[in-house]
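Reproducibility note. Readers wishing to regenerate the assembly model reported in the main text can use the exact inputs given here. Chain order matters: entities are listed in the order in which they were concatenated for prediction.
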Amino acid sequence: MGDLPYGPLTKYRDFATFDWKKMKNFVTTTDVLKFEKVLHDEMLKHPLLYQQQLVTPSLKEQRIITAQKLKVLYQIVEKMMNGKAFKSLEMLSFVNAVFALDVSLGLKYVVNSSMFAGGVLRMGTERHKEIAEQALRGEIYGCVCFSEVAHGTNAQGLRTTATYDLKRKQFILHTPDFEAAKCYICFGMLPLYVLCVNSKRILGKSAEYGIVYANLILPGGENRGIHAFLVKIHDTNLKPYLGITTADLGEKIGANGVDNAIIIFNQYPVPRESLLNQVGDVTEDGKYIANLNNSKEIYQINLKGFSESRVRVLAMTTSYLVKSLTIAIRYAAVRKQFSPSDGQDEVSIIEYQTHQYRLFPYLAMAYVSKIFCQYVFKNVYGMTPLASIAEELHAITSGAKSVIVWLVRDAIQECREACGGHGYLKASGIGEMRNSNDLNCTSEGENHVIIQQTSNWLLKKWPSVLQNQRVKNPLRSIEFVNDAKNILNTKFSSSVMDIDCILNTFKWLTCYMLKTTYEKHQAILKQSSEFHAKNEIQVFHAKTLATVYVQHLMLSVMKEQIADTENTELKKVLSKLFILFGCWCLDKHMMKLYSGGYIINTNAPSLIQETILNVCGELKNEAVALIDAIAHPDFIVNSILGHSDGEVYKHLEAAVFQNPHAFGRPSWWTEILEHQNVFSKL
Amino acid sequence: MGDLPYGPLTKYRDFATFDWKKMKNFVTTTDVLKFEKVLHDEMLKHPLLYQQQLVTPSLKEQRIITAQKLKVLYQIVEKMMNGKAFKSLEMLSFVNAVFALDVSLGLKYVVNSSMFAGGVLRMGTERHKEIAEQALRGEIYGCVCFSEVAHGTNAQGLRTTATYDLKRKQFILHTPDFEAAKCYICFGMLPLYVLCVNSKRILGKSAEYGIVYANLILPGGENRGIHAFLVKIHDTNLKPYLGITTADLGEKIGANGVDNAIIIFNQYPVPRESLLNQVGDVTEDGKYIANLNNSKEIYQINLKGFSESRVRVLAMTTSYLVKSLTIAIRYAAVRKQFSPSDGQDEVSIIEYQTHQYRLFPYLAMAYVSKIFCQYVFKNVYGMTPLASIAEELHAITSGAKSVIVWLVRDAIQECREACGGHGYLKASGIGEMRNSNDLNCTSEGENHVIIQQTSNWLLKKWPSVLQNQRVKNPLRSIEFVNDAKNILNTKFSSSVMDIDCILNTFKWLTCYMLKTTYEKHQAILKQSSEFHAKNEIQVFHAKTLATVYVQHLMLSVMKEQIADTENTELKKVLSKLFILFGCWCLDKHMMKLYSGGYIINTNAPSLIQETILNVCGELKNEAVALIDAIAHPDFIVNSILGHSDGEVYKHLEAAVFQNPHAFGRPSWWTEILEHQNVFSKL
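Running the prediction on these inputs yields the following structure tokens for the assembly.
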């Protein structure tokens, strides 16, 4: 780990009470740091990956550049891994670096390697394996055709059909109308060429594939529900096969290096073997055979896919959070505004309580989230057989995906505003983070819909409590709920907001929200349907329930991590981060603590708010070093405001002066007269 | 007013209990509707103004197009107004339409006509009038050079100097270093040419001007503080004069049709008469003469400028709100997801309580804000001599700008997410609204800084209350504070959340926040400086104080407006909007109501939350018609999801199929091999 450059940030670095390198080793563990170092060094060899784009290239150029970057990334992965899969924390580290560098690059990689190849391996059998392996090596590019124009998160609403034709012994894929067109397909037209032609790989089977989700219809007309098919989409000349129409979806808010498309199938035949038949198969004579008799097994295969997608989102959203905070906090330490009185020097804006309150709770969250990501990655990609923990993990990842993505959304916006006018410049880099994270709110399960997976799982547990049975939670995320009856009788009585007080308050809050949400649900059920009842408990009950459950779990994981260090300086500052994030979350749940009777005649509200402001004040001298310990390297941060040397104005000056069109008359001034003619009739 | 097209939205339109045309007439008054109709009709004659851009043009093209649009807009204004100024509500209506159509166009127009010309008229004297009038006619284009690279909202920190040179009898403008370079200058290079050459106007004096704010330094070295100068920046060939360096600031998050720039002065001489000398002047022999002896008068001249800028922001942010809601609510009525049970039809997502709760409070706010905008425009541009109300108006507009821009920021994000994956498409139009409004958070006074103007003004009033003196508030925005002692003794005792109950609660809340903020401020002052004390009261006190003050005022204005209608159907639904917005705001202030003792042992929290959900349910059948009554016409909404015909999927299909590059192989597929060569060495 190199030292950081001397400059405007040195003053605040020197204030820190801990060694940022030790903190970095603690938060990211030495093994993973080694992996990260190699990855960064390899990336640095390819300026294409991190060239600063002062002006957004055209859509066409963005896609060509992304494709070229993707090729480089596959080369880097091959060199580093030599065919081996990433270990769980290496995967986390990889997602962390690649998505902060370029969201389009990350998405392209993930769609092919994880969603396509991973999906084929998970849902297919031996006959599909070769294709998945080709994709894993980056030799072919596969897409995933799940969402349709009018249906996304609601899988039951999908309307594409795959009808088994007895005579042809083929499935016939069909799109009934435009509303059922497959949508947001992430194509890989370019990598196909780039990888196959240029890397001297054999073109061979390099047609482009897609996993297509469709209703499996048997010859008699019976609909066996949504199944996945492995389907060739384009030939080697990038032309879609007859019976397939593809069209570009056009520009998006962000991630425009990704060429999202629509696919329409018109009675398109695919071989019987295209069916990814882990779950069930269709015989030559059109009989359906369930390969997994246990619907629970099928469910768990799906849950694994969902959990993998969602922990990836957790990693990327945390990465965006860290990058945005790096920019906002370094700039806040450098930027000075207003003097206490005439003649006195101006004050760095990090000194203002308001500014601390705007940024530091999110800094605390960044630490909590980074540590939480390690926890979920270890569980999803770890040794424990996934089936045994699938449901609880699904509840955790669904809720955490929503809760954390939303908090990061707000954090990035706060960072953007905290950087003032310069935060509005493209060169600040924050706008791009916002656009990248924005995608996460509605993809991989729309947040408002999937957070219900968490509350639904929790609600199913409450009857056990009522019947004095132990609650089954192999990951022990709600082990304390077994003690709910006692917990609900406790009151807030602490005079100081320490780690245990915060966790106890969250335990009470989770039990209280579980109980009241359950009761409200039951009450509505008496007069109405389950569908209606589930909808009517969301706004003020179920959503809060899922939120406090996730926040309690994040803090619990953080507590264990803090207990793991012997270094008292680190322990001290990590505890402050815990307390700040905990109190800041509780402040937003205060009404429930009041109305549920946990807080009666105490000074709890002002205690919590005072703790927030005090800890913010204490962290003022730690913040820059705390960022140093988790920041991406400068070539990834890639922001005039967030460079580790703190030379904000010099970087701004350089960015302005590097712009070839910056000076004097605009390059296009002579074109005006020509344009006159075009528009003069208007 | 034409009828709306038959289609997927007809069902919900038919549900409405009121006539949307009558509502439209009521909310926008017949006079203004006539003006709006002419404006829309004129705009419709120029397809350039509203051509759909499926793909963002290059920065260069965006600027050329914006300049061309600006020319058209000046022609329209000339035709409509024939040299007359807009009346107050016409101005509101104009800003409403132009900014929703194109933020860059709006900014370009406003910078020249209002900020430049208005600034010259406000701060200059007879000798500057001609230039201002040329700008008002669009014959020349002027910019405003206020912010510097390292200072914006803090005007005292500006470092550009204008030193009077006795020998030359000129001011010498100088930029000491890059940090003091003038920044975010909105140039008008193109309009200059377009307007002067093409509209056959005489080129004459058409050099580009800027109002430059600089420290006026007298020959002896005395600094008389920030003054404004009217300065020629470019000659008629668009070349900056010797001694001026200009550079483009580069791409921004949004508003890229505006060519923001940096200006550096290097000992640049300007005539003595350049000084905008309303406030003070410098004689030929270098003496400073204060033209206004009363510092209050000077202050009020500045306040007028600020208030004008800020009410314009209120108009534009409300316009963005309405446009985003139009898109999200129409799409919510059309889009169906999930069936209550197998075999049943899917349900429009507007039927879901969660979705109602996400959108309808903002719909209610849109009505409250539209009416509030009329109130502030009438005051700023109205008959009352501004001086008498300047301070109160400044407090109102500063606070309202922050509070409303932030709420609209959240509203637009909610709309974006409520539109799911399609909301992420450029063609949905919401991303652009977000980028446009984002600017408002940090420009025209950074929100966190200017909201302090409001709390500072309020805090100055509290001593009067303590001393039993009447509080001076010519606009009566805090007239009730005269009764604070009684109000603070009241308790919440209502069993129903009606208009008066909500206003009374807000009155208590404002008095309570005023009292507690004042007391906290005084307590800190005992041990610390004023600078410190002001900073330490912001987070949990002063910001909330300003917020509740603004919200109470918005609701009070809404109440008066509701009282103005005789139509019982309108009255009924407008009251629901009042109640929803009021309760939704109060729900977020509940903790203060609790901890301040206004709510004791009552069911107020659940009453407020139940009211919110019930009114949301009632508004479900009104929402589409409520949007119809305030929506921009389709050519301004310009969204595949928000068209008044509700044919979401047809518009999406058309947008996809109109894209010339949509089909089959990307147009650039043959270029890949060429690109290989460029990158193959990487």
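We highlight two features of this model. The first strand of chain B starts at residue 142 and ends at 145. Chain B has 25 helices and 13 strands.
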